[in-house]
Design brief:
Number of domains: 1
Low-confidence stretches: 153-165
Largest sheet: 2 strands, antiparallel
Structural class: mainly alpha
Helix content: over 70%
Distance between the termini: 23 Å
CATH architecture: Up-down Bundle
CATH class: Mainly Alpha
Strand order of the largest sheet: 1-4
Number of helices: 12
Order of helices and strands: HHHEHEHHHHHHEHEH
CATH superfamily: NCX, central ion-binding region
Number of strands: 4
Shape: globular
Radius of gyration: 19 Å
Mean pLDDT: 80
Length: 318
């Protein structure tokens, strides 16, 4: 049992530090070839923070643990809103940029509805994965088309990485090391999670929705808390909304194309409704003065804790 717990902890640490190293190395490498900071921010950085979810979901799917693969994505999205944004808003009320409410929040709800509709037959097959990837490509193209310049925070985040070609070998080494860490971390996290589920008789989907989901959400949690401490509210909220879109469209899309994912009926009774409710509730909260207040953050966090409690205590929703 201790070996399984150690595997989960090791996997989580490798995912966290590997993703950070990968983002730093690949972003600097892209800049060294003249890629605009706006494109780097919308692609490399956004993809990097979602890479733990991708590697864990694909690894779980290939190992026959489809429940963990699906639970990881859905659970991460719920944790991003309830745990990450809720905790951040409890620390300090968050100002929300109008464009986030107008663009990312409604798109997030559409992505949830698309996943639910595609899952109605009980499986996310390869064709469904292609549809999700097409939706992701359309969103990414639209975002790049309307993004005229990088936010100052994105540019400042990479000012420490010189774009000169002489540093490319070092950046490539960082990228390779980060990728290796993420891949190894995903393998360790999934292996440990499966063992824990089998040992305690907890359904694998519950482990995926909670333990694995929170573990893969660490990059978002860390980035959000750092942004809040610096007063960069738009970065913190945008990071969560963007990550949720990546998870639903890209991560589930890639995973389903590689290996079809069975969708338990309990997801339609509990997990999908909770995810949709959180996404819908976030819209009026963000519109209320374009700010997520401390009391609203407390409600988001309390809702998440209640959701986890129900998952473990009520067998009918597992």
């Amino acid at each position: 049992m201790m070996v399984a717990v150690g595997s989960v902890l090791l996997g989580t640490l490798l995912l966290y530090f590997g993703a950070n190293l990968l983002i730093r190395g690949s972003s600097a490498l892209a800049r060294s070839f003249g890629v605009a900071p706006a494109i780097v921010g919308l692609t490399v950085v956004a993809f990097g923070t979602s890479l733990p979810e991708l590697t864990v979901s694909v690894t779980a799917g290939l190992k026959g643990s489809a429940a963990i693969a699906l639970g990881n994505v859905v659970g991460s999205n719920i944790a991003n809103i309830g745990l990450v944004l809720g905790l951040a808003a409890c620390i300090r009320s968050l100002q929300v940029e109008f464009t986030l409410v107008r663009r990312e929040a409604p798109m997030g709800l559409l992505a949830v509805l698309l996943v639910v509709v595609l899952s109605l037959d009980g499986v996310l097959g390869r064709g469904d994965g292609v549809v999700l990837l097409a939706g992701f490509a359309a969103f990414l193209y639209w975002s790049l088309a309307v993004e005229r310049s990088a936010p100052e925070a994105v540019q400042e985040a990479f000012d420490h990485s010189p774009p000169g070609g002489g540093h490319r070998l070092r950046h490539a080494a960082f990228t390779a090391a980060g990728l290796a860490g993420v891949l190894w971390g995903a393998d360790r996290l999934v292996a440990g999670a499966v063992t824990i589920a089998e040992t305690f008789g907890v359904p694998a989907v519950v482990i995926g929705l909670t333990l694995v989901a929170v573990g893969t959400s660490l990059p978002e949690l860390a980035a959000t808390l750092v942004a809040v401490s610096r007063g960069e509210d738009d970065i913190s909220v945008g990071n969560v909304l963007g990550s949720n879109l990546f998870n639903l469209l890209l991560i589930l899309g890639v995973t389903a194309v590689i290996t079809p994912i069975s969708v338990p009926t309990t997801f339609f009774r509990f997990q999908f409704p909770v995810l949709a409710l959180y996404t819908v509730v976030l819209l009026p909260i963000c519109r209320s003065g374009f700010r997520i207040s401390r009391p609203e953050g407390g409600l988001l966090l309390a809702g998440y804790l209640g959701y986890v409690a129900v998952l473990y205590l009520v067998p009918a929703v597992q």
